[in-house]
Amino acid sequence: MSLYIFSASHISIQEPDSEKWFDEPIFYNSRYVRSIEPDFNLFLSQMVSRRMGKILKRALTTALCALKKSDIVMPDAIITGTGLGCIENTEKFLNSMIDNNEELLSPSFFMQSTHNTISSQIALHLKCNGYNSTYSHRGTSFDAALLDAIMQLELGDISNALVGGHDELTPDYFNLLDKIGYWKKGEISNEILSKSNSKGSFAGECSISFMLGNININNAICEIKGMEMFHNPIPEYLFSEMETLLHNNNSNIHKIDAIVAGINGDIENDKIYTDFQTRFFPNKPLIFYKHIFGESYTASGLGLYTAATILQKGKIPQNLFYSNYKKDIKPQNILIYNHFQNIDHTFIYISSC
Predict the structure, then answer these.
(1) Alpha-carbon span 140 to 138, nearest angstrom
(2) Radius of gyration over every alpha carbon of the chain, rounded to an integer in angstroms
């Protein structure tokens, strides 16, 4: 069954809802960068906006933009992945409990602190009564949401779906992760992230929304051929299942033009990808994106967005090559490979329309 990405919209540490990052990305030397906010008043009324936390405004804005680009008024399903949910509102509620001795607490922060608030707010705004689900599995949250959407589409229960990955990172949570070695020490540079000779990455924030469907309308961005997720596989099994995924879609490793991987500058994280490439795709270009968008629990959504944009534009800019640079390559088939702590692994196979 053919599945298509009709549209995508992002709010990240790059210019919001823009593809300027593709040829002219913003590079940072700080290890903690928050998203560049658009003018939310262009999308939400001030009354609605002032009652929402940052992640809710970002999620709703990207959802509305993705819908508008796809010319779909009402999605059949809203499926969201989020690793941390509305953590800023959660912190505000907990701090309020401490400051007020657990008395006279405002319910607003509590109601907006649950993970499924994001999908719910989008549904309420759109008046959408269809399938609505939220997945929170840390680094595989977006992948689980996307897999659910693909399964629902293949079952024929829906004909399109609004799929999103949304995460924010507060200073307190950044510092907490910093204590366990999540982030690099000192200043960040593109050279440091591409050499992968030290622990840690640099932090970003992610809000990405896609419109998916099973009919190619309005010049879809790309086609999703297949997707597989694995828990704690050995490399041989991973490769075997990847070959099966390609074979089931009348393809093989020779037809893959590039590998888009979740390389983030952490030597242990990146070794999984470079070993996989060296062993099974030694001559294929390895593409990375987290040096542009930063690391977050739902950054894999930005990986899909990066790969889809490459197919739509029919080229790979030099700043996205991690290894095996090839000039003037015009990719038609891309394999996206992400893993979380070398426990959960995901393959997504996409092709140009």
Answers:
(1) 6
(2) 20
C-alpha span between 300 and 320 (Å, rounded): 15
Q: Are 167 and 296 in contact (CB under 8 A)?
A: yes
The three-class DSSP label of residue 91 is helix
Query: pTM for the whole thing?
Result: 0.95
As averages over each run of 10 residues, the pLDDT of the chain (353 residues) reads 93 97 95 95 87 93 97 96 92 81 73 86 96 96 98 95 97 94 89 84 96 88 97 92 94 96 96 93 95 97 98 96 92 98 97 94
Q: Please, are residues 327 and 170 in contact by the beta-carbon 8 Å criterion? A: no
d(CA 288, CA 277): 13
Nearest to 210 by CA among 104, 319, 77: 77
DSSP label of 200 = -
DSSP 247-273: HTTT--GGG--EEEE---SBHHHHHHH
Two tokens, residue 139: 């680094």
CA distance 271 to 95: 40
Q: DSSP string spanning 297-330?
A: TTTHHHHHHHHHHHHHHT---GGGEEES--TT--
Q: How far apart are CA 122 and CA 103, in angstroms?
A: 31
Amino acid at 71: D
